[in-house]
Amino acid sequence: MSYLQLITSPTLLLDEKICRANIKKMADKAARHHMKLVPHFKTAQSKEIGKWAKDYGITEVTVSSIKMAEYLSGEGWKNIHIAFPFNPLETLKLDKIAENQSISVQIINAKTAQILAEQLHHPVGFFIEIDAGYGRTGVEVTDFGLIEEILLIAKKSDQLNFKGFYLHPGHSYYMPDIPAIYEESRNALSMLKTKYSTEYPDLVTRIGDTPGCAVMEDFGDIDEMGPGNFVFYDLMQSNLGGCDKEDIAVCLAVPVVDIKKDRKEILVHGGGVHLAKDVLIDQDGNKNFGEVVYLNEDGWTIPEDRSYLKSISQEHGIIKASDELLSKVKVGDLLGILPVHSCMTADAMGEYLTLEGKTVDHAEGVHE
Question: SMART domains from the entry (predicted)?
Answer without folding.
Answer: D-ser_dehydrat (SM01119)
